[in-house]
Amino acid sequence: MAINTILGFSWDQQRGRAEDLATRYPFAQDALGFFRQLISFQETMFEGLPVQPEHVPVERDGPFPLREMFAEQHHDLLLSKFPEFLDLVQRIAPSALAEAAGALRSVPAERWEALLDAYWFQDTGQPDSPDEAGAIDFFPKAFLQPYAAGLANWVRGDGNEEGIDWKVAEGIGVCPMCGAKAQVSVLRPESHGASRTLLCSLCATEWRFKRVRCVSCGEEEFDRLLYHSTDQFPHVRLNLCETCHTYIKEVDLTKETQAVPVVDEIATIPLDIVAVERGYHKLELNLIGM
């Protein structure tokens, strides 16, 4: 199953951007190094996965059509590769994730199967805190991302991850393709201004969203929606909601055309520190668990 892109950009673009930002932001070197190794593993593993999405029946007009595509034959192939993924995370991840990978490696395969199924169907329960949920979700999300992106490509019919108008979101910021949360908000050049899209944390679908609206709770009162940016990261800002105390980062491609949203989101760690110190929690932790 050849997948050249995930989360909107090619593997090479992501690696190149991560290397560039690691030089620009020394404080992000470890995080971006982990990210580069992780996506290289994703690319290698899934390029060798003999899956043909077009052989899977799907109701394209139903809600979250990707959920119906988790076919049994694909499921078995994926599950067989999960131990190798856990071994990698145990070797290269920060200590907390490495320890969690080791613990997960020792449980029966049935537990792995349940974990992957629960995440795919977004039925992961209600942990005590958003951060705890993100830690649990890291493993199925990081493992399933390229597979989900490849299937979403086929359903959208765009073939190149550029279908940003696949569906206009109504309500909160949940992916209309798979039901996962948005990873990052993106501003793209359009006419004499910019349009806002959300980028799915799982399947790479990108869809339009209102410029003035909380991605988490749908708040639209201007006075309840705050923004924070710094001179250090002029093209990335925090979108903060005073109603639900959730935040998401927004990458402005009109200010930095070379930005790769998922990579720039990871590299701008000081913005996360600001948000947490002010009492906000992140809508969706990124691929390095921040």
Distance between the termini: 30 Å
**What percent of the residues sit in helical stretches (DSSP H or I)?**
40-55%
Count the helices. How many?
A: 8
Q: How much of the polypeptide forms β-strand, as a percent range?
A: 15-25%
Ranges where pLDDT stays below 50 over 5 or more residues in a row are: 159-164
Radius of gyration: 18 Å
Quote the average pLDDT.
85
Morphology: globular
Main β-sheet description: 7 strands, mixed
Return the domain count: 2
How do the helices and strands follow one another from N- to C-terminus?
A: EEHHHHHHEEEEEEHHE
Number of E strands: 9
Can you describe what's shown?
The chain is an alpha+beta fold and 290 residues long. It has two domains: 5-156, no CATH class; 182-282, no CATH class. The protein is 41% helix and 15% strand. The protein has eight helices and nine strands. It has helices at 11-24, 29-47, 72-92, 95-105, 109-120, 130-156, 261-267, 269-277, and strands spanning 5-6, 9-10, 182-190, 193-200, 206-208, 225-229, 236-241, 246-252, 281-282. Strands 3, 4, 5, 6, 7, 8 and 9 form a seven-stranded mixed β-sheet that branches. A two-stranded antiparallel ribbon has the order 1-2. Strand 4 (193-200) and strand 5 form a beta hairpin. Helix 1 packs antiparallel against helix 2 and helix 1 (11-24) packs parallel to helix 7. The radius of gyration is 18 Å and the shape is globular.
